[in-house]
Design a protein that fits this description.
The chain is built from 15 helices and 16 strands. With 424 residues, the protein is an alpha+beta fold. The protein is elongated and about 90 Å long. Bound molecules: histidyl-adenosine monophosphate (HAM).
């Protein structure tokens, strides 16, 4: 048996896991600050939900879904993304009755059967938001601003590209024109794009194959086909973003690989990542809720790819222990240390102790290795005299503390150290 995680998945071990947690917590705090509340969804849905939302002829639905039959013969799929699930939950629980807009955020694993490479995995994690129930440009602008704030907070460099893919009033004319153009240039397209050109021409614009890129470069320009309403909406989004200092570049070929988008689409790119350079992406999807059987309800959102954020920002500062290490010298002291460590934890202080019968010297080394700023030392002398020895590990100085004063002294010392929480 091969003892190995499945292809395209990875373990996130300490201390890196601590950094992941902190990044996620920062994101969540920021989302709440903008008025979003968490929605926790199943990681699988009926396959139909994704086929109808993301689109039958997209790469995700055609090639990348982890789909299986349950024992009742139903087709289920591990979610390749969360927007479809949020829309399904919105319809199922009639969230519109709870008042609009609904501002929701989510986090968790997504699954796509893609060829793994740096920044592309089969199981990856997203942090995302959906603002459901507003067609206003301010909703698009808020969502984009929120995503930009996330990257600013983490000091991750990004470039924002944005476009409008129009709506049902203006897009069909563009798709016709594109379709015509692609038919004329069929010979120069890759095999996938020849199929896409017939089934779903817009998807050709996402193709990364070199020969296709040359054809795409000369394709009709979507902007020229936008109707007045879509044009105004887009201008208002960009103008609101400018008003809050968010710079963006219009990318006329940006259409995104999912079919549910209408009007605004955007991506946050990071220049240091290679081919997989989108750290986050999103857009407006005004027809999705209705397509899933709900009332027509406009919506907009984005998802951040956590793995890519961690790749773009690899400052792997160690997560240091923050509390005390209780060091015991001798058998009876070990029993006592077990109790003292628990008392400290009950009082909210992180505490650890030796479980390997190590010598006092080795225990001290372990405390240092784990980065504990304080050590409570408990030996025969201490037990006989009713006191503890408190060692400041950074300065290497020790003091005696009466037993009943221990908690207060520990707290004071830790406060002096300062909480490393804010030092990300
Ligand atoms: P998406 O562009 O498919 O959009 O994915 C969003 C982000 O997830 C990407 O920009 C990337 O950072 C990350 N990502 C996607 N696939 C992978 C992968 N195989 N490995 C690692 N990271 C990946 C969506 O998922 C939409 N639901 C976004 C959205 C929300 N639109 C409206 N609301």
């Amino acid at each position: 048996m091969e003892v190995k995680a499945p292809k395209g998945t990875m373990d996130i071990l300490p201390p890196l896991s601590g950094r992941w947690r902190r990044v996620q917590e920062k994101g969540v705090r920021l989302f709440r600050n903008f008025g979003y509340r968490e929605i926790i969804l199943p990681i699988m849905e009926h396959t139909e939900i994704f086929a109808r939302s993301i689109g039958e002829s997209t790469d995700i639905v055609q090639k990348e879904m982890f789909t299986f039959r349950d024992k009742g013969g139903r087709s289920l799929t591990l979610r390749p993304e969360a927007t479809a699930g949020v829309a399904r939950a919105f319809v199922e629980h009639r969230l519109d009755a709870a008042g609009l807009p609904q501002k929701l955020y989510y986090q968790g694993p997504m699954f796509r059967h893609e060829r793994p490479q740096a920044g592309r995995y089969r199981q990856f994690r997203q942090l995302g938001v959906e603002l459901i129930g507003s067609s206003q440009a301010s909703a698009d602008a808020e969502v984009v601003l929120l995503c930009r704030e996330f990257f600013s907070l983490l000091e991750v460099e990004t470039e924002l590209i944005i476009n409008s893919v129009g709506d049902e009033a203006c897009r069909p004319a563009y798709v016709d024109a594109l379709s015509d153009y692609l038919r004329k240039n069929k010979e120069k397209l890759c095999e996938d794009c020849r199929r896409r050109a017939v089934e779903n021409p817009l998807r050709v614009l996402d193709c990364k194959v070199k020969d296709c890129a040359a054809v795409i470069g000369k394709a009709p320009d979507l902007e020229a086909y936008l109707c007045g309403a879509c044009r105004d909406h887009f201008q208002e989004v960009v103008s609101l973003l400018q008003a809050v200092g968010v710079e963006c570049r219009r990318e006329p070929r940006l259409v995104r690989g999912l079919d549910y988008y209408t009007r605004t689409v955007f991506e946050f790119l990071n220049p240091s990542l290679g081919a997989q350079n989108a750290l986050a992406a999103g857009g407006r999807y005004d027809n999705l809720i209705e397509q899933l059987g709900g009332k027509a309800t406009p919506a907009v959102g984005f998802s951040i790819g956590m793995e890519r954020v961690m790749l773009a920002e690899p400052r792997l500062e160690e997560e240091k222990a923050r509390g005390v290490y209780v060091l015991a010298i001798g058998g009876e002291a070990r029993r006592q240390a077990f109790v003292i460590a628990q008392r400290l934890r009950e009082a909210g202080v992180e505490a650890d102790l030796d479980h390997l019968d190590r010598s006092p010297k080795a225990q001290m080394r372990e405390a240092g290795r784990e980065g504990y700023p304080l050590c409570v030392i408990l030996g025969e002398e201490e037990m006989g005299g009713g006191f503890f020895t408190l060692r400041d590990m950074l300065r290497g100085v020790q003091e005696r503390v009466p037993a009943e004063e221990l908690l207060r002294a520990v707290r004071r010392r830790l406060e002096e150290e300062g909480s490393p929480e804010g030092k990300d």
